[in-house]
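Appendix B, Record 12. Input sequence as logged:
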Amino acid sequence: METGSPRLKHTLFLALAILIPLSIILCAAELTTRYFDPQIRGKQGLQNPFWAHHPTRHHALKPGDYADTIWGIFFHVNKLGFRGPEISKDKPQGTMRILCLGDSITMGSALPEEAVYPRIVEGILLERYPGHRFEVINMGVSGYDIEEEHLQFKEEGLLLSPDAVVVQFCLNDVPSVEFVDLINPLRELDIPGKRFLLAHLALARFLRERYNRLGLKNAFLGVDHLFEMDPESPQAQRIEKGFSEYETRLREIASLCRKRGVRFLLLIVPHRAQFDDRRARYIPQKRLIALGRESGFDVLDLVPLFSSLEKLPYAFPDPVHPDPIGHKIIAGAIVQWLESGIEDIPLK
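Logged structural output:
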């Protein structure tokens, strides 16, 4: 016992010398990642106070003014439940109305209202066409995908008598599909306690996001074959089902517009990670552009415009939402599309 006791003490001391600094480092890493963690920010800033229960779409924006939120911005939801100034349900005579449907990108998470593309589009049109009336209505709601947007358009959008409709797309909008499904088929590691760790630790979610991105820049490692998706796998079938559902709902919105003589545009906003995917294999742009040609509606792909910039227009560390520069680029592209057929819409 006498000879073992010093060894035991030495072992315990060595273990503490390793564990204590390691614990401090892990705690510091957890606190840092919690500060930037989108899930924690979502719990604090998206569901409360902006969301209200909706009988058919799960949730919608709750009318009211919200200031000094987690985003530190003033947030106004009008009486119709859209972010922006008050408008009437009936379109004023001589007014051109453009509806912008989408998720948190269109809604403008973390951005003041004047920096979000629907408001910028309206400002450009009013400046270029003095004496005419324009209303660009921001119908974006954080967390929406094509299912909710389709219902929202049928339940509320058509009642607003639009002259043009813009539906915004991002990889997060495909039903039952996450963007990481498209870049890392091997993402579902079987780790004991994984659900608990992901639910409670921001650091675990950060490490998962890093692992998920292994499918992006792998060409130089020579391990491309490890990230090939089996077309018969459950994941591949789920992705195909999600895209098929998206295309079906999109066709229905476009068809409703066509029947009423309303111009329709699909606006594709790329995910930041898509610019890192050297294989360029899972980018859905080509598929959606082909769908537009087949179904007879316009598609605006922002990849070329974003790629032409020295710095990609995304707010660090957010890979989903464009920054104010990105929204200006989006607005300019939409205005150009509108002007290409503006003579077909009465402005008197």
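The first helix runs from residue 4 to 36.
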